[in-house]
Specification:
The chain is built from 3 helices and 9 strands; from the N terminus they run βαββαβββββαβ. It is of the alpha/beta class and about 130 residues long.
């Protein structure tokens, strides 16, 4: 999509696999895309099925996968992406009985996006 100044704007809807190895393939694809689109305004939004830190998941009995978190954070760093903070709630996914909750959905943007739209916010609807 072209923006009013003629520059390109790329918005990518993400629905990452539940499998860590398959997410790793997606992270590689995102990094390659970031390398190719270094002059475009890029936004990735959706369910990344990954957490960035232990504080983003509560109530899950299994051990945290630190390697998965590290790979996710490295992809974000290597792709030069910034996470837009979620306003209005801390978690997106809730188990129906409320025993577990996680932050899996995100809005990630590149520096060109932030230069053009620095006042972007992400609101959670309850």
């Amino acid at each position: 999509m072209e923006v009013e100044d003629g520059s390109k704007c790329t918005i990518i809807n993400v629905y990452a696999p539940n499998n860590s190895a398959q997410r790793g393939i997606l992270w590689e694809m995102i990094e390659a895309l970031a390398d190719q689109n270094n002059t475009d305004k890029v936004c990735l939004i959706g369910d990344f099925n990954a957490i960035r830190g232990v504080n983003e998941r509560i109530g899950r009995s299994s051990v945290c996968d630190y390697r998965d978190m590290d790979n996710f954070n490295k992809m974000i760093d290597r792709s030069d992406l910034t996470e837009i903070p979620l306003v209005g709630r801390s978690y997106i996914w809730y188990r129906p009985d409320g025993s577990c909750k996680s932050k899996l959905d995100r809005l990630l943007v590149n520096p060109n996006w932030l230069t053009k739209w620095s006042n972007v916010i992400l609101k959670g609807v309850k």
